[in-house]
Amino acid sequence: MADYIGAIDQGTTSTRFIVFDRSGHIVSMSRREHRQFYPQAGWVEHDPEEIWNCTKEVVHEGMETGSLRPRDLVGIGITNQRETTVVWDGRTGKTVCNAIAWQDTRVADMVAEFAQGGGQNRYRAKTGLPLSTYFSGLKLKWILDNIAGARSRAEAGELLFGNVDTFLIWNLTGGTNGGIHITDATNASRTQLMNLNTLDWDVDILSDFDIPRRILPRIVSSSEVYGEAKLPFISGVPIAGDLGDQQAALVGQCCFQPGEAKNTYGTGCFLLMNTGERAVQSESGLLTTVAYKLGSRNPCYALEGSIAIAGALVQWLRDNLGFIANSTAIEDVARTVDDNGGVYFVPAFSGLYAPYWRDDARGVIAGLTRYVNKGHIARAVLEATAFQVRDVVDAIERDSGIGLSILRADGGMVSNELLMQFQSDILARPVVRPTVSETTALGAAYAAGLGIGFFSGVDELVANWGVDKRWEPAMREQSRARLYHFWKKAVARSIAWIE
Fold it and tell me: How far apart are CA 353 and CA 307, in angstroms?
């Protein structure tokens, strides 16, 4: 029997291929970045064909680096940046335009228009989601309405739509030569087109958005054999797992019990709490989403707090302002001061996501005085992520009725010790980092392994999970309350900036 399982982790800024052994340890890894396009204010795009080329490159390199052959892999799982919208011609494989990335806000006018006919929560009961620029459905509508010939080609059955997972699986399984057009329930739940109860496309919403059903992929479980890879270096390897990136991290962190939660610190920040087989409707500005569906078992759901800008704020300081030479330098600069000097940075570059959902918000730096220096700005940048996570944790506890006892943290920013300690301080809860930091890819590998019988069940996965480091809160309650009070004041200043 093959000894290893692979995962393709296609993220907002890069693509990874990681091979794991049965215990969840990394055997081989390769990574490529792809370009970000900003054609105009509020627009964010990726080139899907560049992403596909990066995927082929990292898979090839990862197999060579590990001296692996196709027969060494029992299967491959896919995980992906969610909501990023791709439309392509099923006959040629060519995309009709660049992918519209999840941070893109070009559909803001559509959001306002549909909200007039029933409010921002018009589709929440069915989809678990508020009307927002975030989700795929309105991005797809924009493409059909604005790209010449797209609507007629879609209605004629020539075009295919998907989040990035769908595009990759179609290409991996043959593309124009029999590629499989599918998506899993977690990705489908991010389109605002799927009914959470039926796990099928909702005909009424499709009608409202004027989207032809034939352009949509078939919805499958997160863990089953979909088909075999056709690439030479992984030819014949089953593609057997598919999870949106944040749900994959939930699985990789082994949050299989209701009340268990993880937070991923990446380009954005995404906190998910498992709510079991009950889809909890939020009253506090959170998203209700499919957490995973393992084979024929009932789906499990999660409450999610989605934060648009976390690590992206550090990247902005680096790339737009030249404030630091590299992202890891932010911690050293922040440590030159003892506190934020009264400065608060609300990074509402694409509006505010959970729990506010305000498309009219924009970024604000508040509390500036002549005393403030570079270190205070750096510290305020890091603290902005932790404050946003506090907003989400408070909302999740209100909605779920479950007190969070511990926060499992993963993603690129968890190596920042100053941030992790401040996160524990502002939450007044322990924060733990797992021994395997690549939890998103690990979750995709776990889903594939379960789908193909490589793992005996979730108990085997739980036994693999371990703690690398733990941070305990060390801040006095008076200081915590004062800091959070001024954060909320700064958030209020950012709202209603766009008229």
Answer: 5
